[in-house]
Amino acid sequence: MRPLTAARPKVMQPVAGKPMVEHLLIECRKAGLTDFVLIVGYHDEKVRGYFGDGSAWGARIRYVLQRQPAGTADALRQALPLLNTSFIMLNGDIMLRAADIAPLSRMKVTTLSLVELADVTGMGVVELEGECVILIHEKTLNPPTHLANAGVYYFTQDVVAALAKTPRSPRGEFEITDTIQLMIDAGVPVGFRMLNTWRDLGYPWDLLSANEEFLSGIESRIEGKVEDGAVLKGAVEIGSGSIVRAGSYIVGPVIIGQNCDIGPNCYLRPGTAIGNNCHIGASVEIKNSIIMANTKIPHLTYVGDSIIGENCNLGAGTQVANLRFDRSNARVNGKDTGRRKMGAIIGDNVSTGINASINLGTFIGSGAIIGPGALVSGVIAPGARIL
């Protein structure tokens, strides 16, 4: 997720106006769950400060600090003093709907949630026999099945003894899949459920796909001011204190946060989510993008299929490309993003000069400065000066 995680943990990356883990929390609440333990580490203050005690969501939230990242089984060990009954455990960097969460709370045995994928590279896969999981392969080079571990579990208290015996893996971590295999080997039944709504958010471009999905379900809500002469079509949310000035043309689904200054004469296209305290100015066009809080895009700029971090300022005439001439998928460091259209991923506190050009698939590290008329592509290091 770099450069987006330079100042915030992965689970606090915004999707459709909310941190990704808030969407997961909301779906858990819809499924009837009320008591949560969040295992935090990197920039834990961002999570604690946002969620507090959980009362704003009708939930009770407690926190466990994993001081050093040492694997999922280690994280669960840290939380055991707060878990004296059966429980559901979920990875924080996934999207899942209540319809897939609720059935887990009715399980009788430890249960893994699975998804069937064409490509399971880098994922744990399982072998089944009847109604049970019999073997787990963690990130193997030659996976024997396409049934991937989705990072969504129901655990009975049988897990406690297995956690105590879980060794450190060859990767140097305590893997929850090793814990589960120990349970299986000890004769503890481990069932499975297939998921229907799962989405993994492993890379920055996955945020764009998730953003599109969640925006598709919003309804119009206008809490700010819309001047005469502005045009709003489709579902558009406008937060309190925001103003949409005359000549602005907005086609939803679009979310605009609080205290934003939009327009005049700008064009916001579907799939765009704009954070709080942003300025989108004259002759600016934004399409299918995530613009984080306190960012300014004031003049004559195009941004498409991109993620722009907090506190950025794009100079007049900055242009972001989002389509290859050969129409093939965008690639980043040789990795296929699976997206035919993709712009740039820009970290926090980045500034561009007038008429800067940013090629598709460019990653710009936090604090970088892209000078007037500069053309950039590839991966730009944090704090770099391209003049």
Structure write-up:
In the N-terminal section; belongs to the N-acetylglucosamine-1-phosphate uridyltransferase family. In the C-terminal section; belongs to the transferase hexapeptide repeat family. It catalyses: alpha-D-glucosamine 1-phosphate + acetyl-CoA = N-acetyl-alpha-D-glucosamine 1-phosphate + CoA + H(+); N-acetyl-alpha-D-glucosamine 1-phosphate + UTP + H(+) = UDP-N-acetyl-alpha-D-glucosamine + diphosphate. Residues 1-215 form the Nucleotidyl transferase domain. It comes from Dehalogenimonas formicexedens. The protein is an alpha/beta fold and 387 residues long. The protein has 2 domains: 10-202, Spore Coat Polysaccharide Biosynthesis Protein SpsA, Chain A (Alpha-Beta Complex); 207-386, Hexapeptide repeat proteins (UDP N-Acetylglucosamine Acyltransferase, domain 1, 3 Solenoid), CATH 2.160.10.10. Helix content is 16%, strand content 32%. The protein has 7 helices and 40 strands. The strands form 11 sheets. A 9-stranded parallel beta sheet has the order 13-16-19-22-25-28-33-36-39. Strands 14-17-20-23-26 form a 5-stranded parallel beta sheet, with no helix packed on it. A 5-stranded parallel beta sheet has the order 15-18-21-24-27, with no helix packed on it. Helix 3 crosses helix 6 (176-185). The longest helix is centred in the middle third of the chain and has 12 residues, at 204-215.
